[in-house]
Task: inverse folding
């Protein structure tokens, strides 16, 4: 019964809110949003989605790294639902790489992120999970996590000249 929802775009107020902690994972409204996040993400070429992107201001995200035309070098993984996620960097080391966002189509930018992080979250059944993430998947997590705090990746860009069009990004990748 899940449906593809509209992905709200840059300028939508909900993308700037601090999302609410989920208190009852089993509530139908929460489970419905989770199902719609998975269905909506599967309808795109994205590698992650956060609940605020479908106008549901809850602390829930999906990380779903997979290779695609958008991210040719992305590792393959099962879409993973993370509820009330937290993270801390394992070291202060950051690296910059290209990101995009389903809420900001047509744009890519270089964004510094922690290389290695330790995360914890509740899964869809309410089990507590702890994991170490590194590289691209750690990047996706940090990008989606920012959505829960009303932050967008463009807020993290160090130099406006690191913001480019997707067309020019494709040329860059083809080199
Ligand atoms: Ni995004």
Result:
């Amino acid at each position: 019964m899940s449906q593809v929802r509209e992905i709200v775009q840059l300028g939508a107020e909900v993308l700037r809110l601090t999302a609410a902690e989920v208190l009852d994972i089993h509530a139908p409204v929460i489970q419905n949003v989770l199902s719609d996040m998975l269905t909506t993400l599967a309808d795109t070429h994205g590698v992650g989605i956060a609940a605020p992107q479908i106008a549901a201001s809850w602390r829930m995200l999906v990380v779903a790294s997979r290779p695609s035309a958008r991210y040719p070098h992305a590792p393959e993984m099962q879409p993973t639902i993370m509820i009330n996620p937290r993270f801390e960097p394992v070291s202060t080391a950051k690296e910059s790489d290209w990101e995009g966002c389903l809420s900001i189509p047509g744009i890519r930018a270089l964004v510094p992120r922690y290389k290695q992080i330790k995360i914890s979250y509740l899964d869809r059944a309410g089990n507590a999970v702890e994991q170490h993430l590194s590289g691209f998947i750690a990047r996706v997590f940090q990008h989606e996590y920012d959505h829960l705090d009303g932050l967008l990746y463009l807020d993290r860009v160090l130099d406006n000249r690191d913001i480019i069009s997707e067309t020019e990004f494709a040329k860059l990748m083809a080199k």
Remarks:
- The two ends are 44 Å apart (CA to CA).
- The chain has a mean pLDDT of 96.
